[in-house]
Amino acid sequence: MKDLNAHLMTLRRPGLLVRAATLACDTGDAHRRAKRRPVGKLLAEEEMLNAARIGGGLGYSPTRHVQVMSAILAAARAVH
Question: Which of 8, 56, 67, 69 lies 20 to 30 Å from 38 when distance is taken between CA atoms?
Answer without folding.
Answer: 56
